[in-house]
Amino acid sequence: MMNRPIIALDFSTMTEVGEFLGKFDEALFVKVGMELYLQNGPAVIREIRAMGHDIFLDLKLHDIPNTVGKAMAGLGALDVQMTNVHAQGGVSMMKRAAESFKDHNPDGVLIAVTQLTSTSEEMMQQEQKSILTLDESVIHYAQLAKNSGLDGVVSSPLESQLIHEHCGDDFLTVTPGIRLNEDSKDDQVRVVTPAGANALGSDHIVVGRSITKASDPAAQYRRVKEEWESGEE
Ligand SMILES: O=C(O)c1cc(=O)[nH]c(=O)n1[C@@H]1O[C@H](COP(=O)(O)O)[C@@H](O)[C@H]1O
């Protein structure tokens, strides 16, 4: 069974979230990111959980180990199924994050962002002054995350196969940057279709605007899910 596509609830208010979720009659896996969480706080988690949906809380923590460890204790106490940090925060930070999160939420999944899907290889080399290729950098961060006790990473589906080759099939690849063929890329760079993500071996896809901005979001979700599960566009 394929994992359900994760819908990114990139809204500012709970009113918008309620309107959006009201269009669905099934239990979803949704992502609460900075836009929603920073403006509404932990109450959004309780409300969305009460509606029966699973939650990926995406705050991409990136700070010194002590600060992230303490913050993760707070996030671990929330009833979320998945959360994340930035692998660029380093091994000590990721280890502290994992210990702290799992202490409070043993079944929760902790993953690390490798290179954002809005980053191209050229940007990475010019802005981060990286001497690696994008693939090498993603593999490197995935290996650090694995050695730090995390369950997987966030990357583009373009790197899912390589990550599994280097970190094993059980190491999760959670992949945003998903677009249907006719969609615009918006601010994303490394984009793939749901069928493409399936072919490349992603474990989860994260889909925002392709669904949230569609005229019929529930129908669009079914289309994304069907394409993701069948591997056919
Ligand atoms: O951690 C994430 O979820 C994330 C990492 C990344 O590299 N790229 C990325 O797009 N995301 C998130 O995935 C979602 C993608 O949204 P759409 O581009 O609208 O599908 C957004 O909520 C982003 O914050």
TrEMBL record:
Its EC number is 4.1.1.23. The active site is at 58 (for ompdecase activity), 60 (proton donor), 60 (for ompdecase activity), 63 (for ompdecase activity). Catalyzes the decarboxylation of orotidine 5'-monophosphate (OMP) to uridine 5'-monophosphate (UMP). Catalyzes the condensation of ribulose 5-phosphate with formaldehyde to form 3-hexulose 6-phosphate. It comes from the Bacteria. HAMAP family: OMPdecase_type1_B. SUPFAM superfamilies: Ribulose-phoshate binding barrel (SSF51366). Belongs to the OMP decarboxylase family. Type 1 subfamily. Substrate binds at residues 10, 31, 58-67, 117, 179, 188, 208-209. One of its GO terms (biological process) is 'de novo' UMP biosynthetic process. PROSITE patterns: OMPDECASE. It comes from Salinicoccus cyprini. Gene3D superfamilies: Aldolase class I. InterPro entries: Aldolase_TIM, OMPdecase, OMPdecase_AS, OMPdecase_bac, OMPdeCOase_dom, RibuloseP-bd_barrel. It catalyses: orotidine 5'-phosphate + H(+) = UMP + CO2. The keyword Lyase applies. This is Orotidine 5'-phosphate decarboxylase. Pathway: Pyrimidine metabolism; UMP biosynthesis via de novo pathway; UMP from orotate: step 2/2. Homodimer. GO terms for molecular function: orotidine-5'-phosphate decarboxylase activity. GO terms for cellular component: cytosol. Keywords: Decarboxylase, Lyase, Pyrimidine biosynthesis. Residues 4-224 form the Orotidine 5'-phosphate decarboxylase domain.
